[in-house]
Every structure is written in C-alpha cells, then in structure tokens.
Amino acid sequence: MSICAQAVADYLKQTGLASRGLLVGYDTRFASEDFAQAAAEVVAASGIKVYLCSKATPTPVVSYGVKAQGAGGAIVITASHNPPQWNGFKYKSETGTSAPTEAIAALEKNITQILATGKINQIPLASALKQGLVEYIDLAPAYLKQITKLIDLSELRKARLKIVVDAMYGTGTGYFGMLLGGGSSELIEINSERNPIFPGMKQPEPIAQNLAKLKAKVKEEKASVGIATDGDADRLGIIDEKGNFLTQLQVFALLALYMLEVRGERGAIVKTLTTTSMLNRLGEIFNVPIRETPVGFKYVAPIMLERNALIGGEESGGYGFRGHMPERDGILAGLYFLGLMVKTGKTPSQLLEHLFSKVGPHHYQRVDIEFPEEERQKITSRLKDSSPQSLDGVKVVKRDTFDGFRFTLADTSWLLIRFSGTEPLLRIYAESDSPARVERLLELGKELAGV
After folding, report:
1. Which of 243, 242, 224 is nearest to 180 (CA)?
2. R_g of the chain computed on alpha carbons
3. Nearest residue to 19 (alpha-carbon basis) of 70, 76, 67
4. How many beta carbons lie within 10 A of that of residue 53, not counting itself?
C-alpha cells in the first residue's frame, strides 16, 4: 500500500497536480482506516497536502469531493463489491473519475521504480497534522448539496413510499436517511452497522444471491421498493415490490428511460459490452447515439466526458450521470429510480412492464465459474476455435472478440464469455427474451468454454 501511495505522490508531481492536494478516503472493511492513514502519511511526506476523510465515506462522495475541492485526485481504500478477505487501492483522477489507462501506466511505471530503489517517504500522522500537511475533512455536506441540485428531494420525501435500504454493511449507511428523512416516505435500513465479514452474503455486491434478507424484508413490510448499495456505494441493486430482483441491465434501461421519457433529456448513452441491447432499442426510439466500450468504467468515463453523455453504465450496477460526474454513483442512481417511480406513479414491476412494452421482453443472467489457473490457456484456445453457426436454434449473425468472446444472434439475443479482470473467474453472460432461453444460452456457453 505504501508503495502505491508513493507512486501516486510521484505521479502528482510529474503531472503538475501536486499543488492541488489529494483526497484520501476509505470504506468499512477491516483496517481500511489504518491503510488510509498510512497512505496519507506517505503522500504528505512528499510535501503534498492531504485531505483525509474523517470517517468511512462512499466512493462516489470521494469522487465528487475531488471535483468540489479542486483536488489533484484521490486515493480510496476499498475493495468495493469483492469478498471480505479482500481490500484494495483505488486511484481517482483530477476529474473524480476512475484512472484512465495512461494514468494507470504511469503509476505502474512509478511502482516499478520504487520497487527497484526502495525509496518511500513517510511522516507520522501527528506531525503531518501539526504541520498542516494533513487535514481531516467531511465530504458529505458538499455531496448532499450537489444532490439537491439534481433531483427534487422534497417530492420524494412527500411521496408516501415505504423504502427498504440495504447498505450491505458498507459506506452507504445513512445517506438515504439524510437525503429523504423527515417526510411522509418511510425508510427502513438493514445491514447498516459496520461488519467487515459481511454476514449472510458472499460479498457486498448487490446481486440477487446476496439480497435474500432485503427481498424478505420488502415482502414482510409490504414495501414499495428495496434499494441496495454495495460495499463502497458506487453500485445499485433494486428489489421490486413483490420481492423480485430487477437485473442490473433492466435497471440501466429503466434509468435511461427515466432520463429520456420522463425528464425529456437527450444525449449519448455509453454502455459496456456486457450491458443490455434494450439501450440500443431506446436509442432508436428516442434518436440518441449509443456508444459501446470494453468492461470497466475507466472506459466509460472518457467517452462520457468527450460526448457530454446523458448516462453511462455497466453490467455490475454502476451508473454515472450528466450534470454530476462521469463516475458510478449508487446513491444518486437509487434516488433517480425513486424519481421514476414517483413521476410515473408506477411500481417497479409495472415500470418493467412499461419498459418491455417499448423494447420487448429482455431477461439476463451471469454465471461466475472458478477454474484452475493452468486451465486458462486451454479455455482461451477452445473459445478461439469456436465458431457456431447457431445457438439454441437461432442463427449467430456476429462473433466478436472486443472484450472476451461474444456471439450475437439474429433475434438480438447474445452470449458473452470472458475472464474477469479483477478476480480469478470465468464469467458467462446472456440476454434473451425469456429466463428459460437465458439458461439455455448459459449452458451452451459452458459447453463452448469446456467448463
């Protein structure tokens, strides 16, 4: 961690950003605050002013803080949605976005040099505080002020919704309460205490298998909706009023529909290749361009900036919005989903029906398969050699290797097989017009990969 922090300090000096200072934030994982303190000590020792979060803070709040503070970037100690034994080191650029590829390359070069020389500067936190090199900061007020500019919170407070919020033991705890409390809408928070082992879930990722408690609570309370944010609150999961999980692809399409149909806005939509073809259909209906990128918000953000895009998103449940910042924000995405409910007067399940009435039914699922590392090349070779003419009785009209191995069918269904970029997993994705067809495509994907 100290090596990475030194690499960031060196990068800020190399790029002329050091004078703007650096934010350091952290999540609720085990010892995250200690790692954050150590990072602050290293960066401050290079003479760079550090604004150290005074408490565990959502990653989108830190990202917006970079913009609000005019900082040169940010370090966030978080493993986001990954299993409890993990922790991580995120670097945010001076725009608050995920580090672009050129910044990552520069940081990697710095790390290589530091490993060779062993040169790491460090100053005790107490001394850094005394010298004014480190200053504690609460980024929540600036973020909350920004949110009030983006959506009518008073309308949501008066909507008489019953909302169950699952913070998944992460940094999103309390934010919906701060934003929506005091009105006729009722908020019920679960998993709101800090617990780094994330009991009852494999990892704090807002996907169906990790939200059993939220599903049950929505049904028990007869709630209007269930909202989940992941460990660092940059991803969103939605449970409808019947206790059913809406897939991230369905939520992405609904958020796009909210922007286009309800708010009447126009602009490009940026999607990773693992997201839904429903967006392409919405692009046709509302005459807006669709841009597709490889997996990762670091690819989405630059195009959002370049095109002043309306919305950008990825399959993991991370969505960014124009007028805010080109970065994932699970809290704002959740508020926008509530705004869609209030403005249309529809329940989540009714919203899904409304969406399908425009674009046709679309269902989706992803399976993650662990495999021995020595099998990676064999799996890759099998997929390179596979060129099926049809899948599930439908003609394959396109095969591409844009990011993994994707097969697009004549009816717009698709199957994608790719290795995770962050975990030792083979991911198989499919979208089609029924859950049964999705299951069949996933099984065919396993056969093609030989797993």
Report:
1. 224
2. 22
3. 70
4. 25
The full set of domains in the chain, from first to last, is: 2-142 (3.40.120.10), 159-359 (3.40.120.10), 363-449 (3.30.310.50)
Give the Cα separation of 374 and 84 in Å (integer).
25
Element (H, E) at 284: helix 278-286
* Nearest C-alpha neighbor of 359 from the set 290, 284, 409, 436: 284
Q: 157 is written with which tokens? A: 């407070």
How far apart are alpha carbons 320 and 316 in whole angstroms?
A: 12
The strand pairing partners of 399, in sequence order, are: 407
Task: Output the DSSP codes for 63-105.
Answer: HHHHHHHT-S-EEEE--TTS-TT---EEEE-TTSSBPPHHHHH
Confidence of residue 244 (pLDDT cuts 50, 70, 90): very high
Quick check: 369 and 417 in contact, CB under 8 A? no
Q: To which H or E segment does residue 11 belong? A: helix 2-14
- At 251-303, the pLDDT tens digits run 999 999 999 999 999 999 999 999 999 999 999 999 999 999 998 898 999 99
Q: Tokens in use for 192?
A: 């709101």
Cα 174 off chain centre by: 19
Q: How far, in Å, are 54, 197, 402, 418 from residue 46 at the CA level?
A: 21, 35, 41, 40
Strand partners, 370: 425
CB–CB of 60/327 below 8 Å?
yes
- In angstroms, the CA 149 to CA 114 distance is 43
- 245 contacts 239 by C-beta, under 8 angstroms: yes
**Residue 77 to residue 440: CA distance in whole angstroms:** 40
Token code pair at residue 233: 């609150």
Determine the average pLDDT of the residues in 382-386: 91
**Cα 333 off chain centre by:** 10
